[in-house]
């Protein structure tokens, strides 16, 4: 069933950021984060020959977290902005460096307030279902780098990620993982979803760390 789904995707290009990021063949990319030298949330995306394809830069301002995805020439393609004061973890994506509503591309959010495993729904700008029917669904386990991206709530896989550990990656202190993108899916769009995954995971880690710190302080306050 999965093979027939891939064949359908191969004949029907899906350009969300740009048609130039859709190729008729399956593509493997490596996403690298220099844990010791880059701020959390900054990546470099390269092909299997080590050629840069995309870069990700992030910064926090006020209550918001923002990430910008650039092409290999440092041209901004997508801006990802965290939406605050919502029940679910939610981020919005915009064209280029804009955060204006007219440049809105899509939104991604957790499907439930508390999640033990990753499950995120993606809604494109032209989705008129009032978030009842998602355009893409992400399932898996971020910690194991084993997430799968589906077209809507279906069995059609458009991309999947898995951990890639090599002796070289351990030696130079990089955290690497691989993403396989199936034919004619927008590769820049898929990269943006991976960035969302990392951002939401970072937010959840911060919440848990804060809760544990608060619990530790309370225990210390009542100890004798």
UniProtKB/TrEMBL annotation:
Belongs to the LOR family. InterPro entries: LOR (IPR007612), LOR_sf (IPR038595), Tubby-like_C (IPR025659). It holds the Pfam family LOR. This is Protein LURP-one-related 15. It comes from the Eukaryota.
């Amino acid at each position: 069933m999965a093979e027939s789904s891939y064949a359908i995707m191969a004949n029907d290009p899906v350009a969300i950021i740009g048609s130039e990021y859709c190729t008729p063949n399956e593509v493997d990319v490596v996403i690298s984060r220099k844990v010791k030298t880059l701020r959390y949330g900054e990546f470099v995306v390269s092909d299997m020959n080590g050629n840069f394809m995309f870069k990700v830069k992030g910064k926090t301002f006020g209550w918001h977290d923002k990430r910008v995805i650039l092409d290999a020439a440092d041209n901004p393609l997508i801006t990802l902005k965290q939406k605050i004061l919502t029940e679910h973890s939610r981020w919005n994506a915009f064209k280029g460096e804009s955060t204006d509503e007219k440049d809105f591309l899509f939104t991604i959010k957790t499907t439930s307030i508390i999640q033990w495993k990753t499950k995120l729904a993606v809604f494109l700008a032209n989705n008129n279902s009032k978030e009842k029917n998602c355009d893409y669904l992400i399932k898996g386990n971020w910690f194991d780098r084993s997430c799968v991206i589906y077209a809507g709530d279906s069995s059609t896989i458009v991309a999947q990620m898995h951990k890639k550990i090599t002796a070289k990656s351990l030696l130079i202190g990089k955290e690497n993982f691989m993403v396989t993108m199936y034919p004619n899916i927008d590769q820049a769009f898929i990269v943006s979803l991976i960035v969302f995954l990392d951002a939401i995971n970072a937010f959840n880690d911060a919440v848990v760390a804060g809760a544990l710190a608060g619990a530790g302080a309370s225990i210390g306050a009542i100890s004798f």
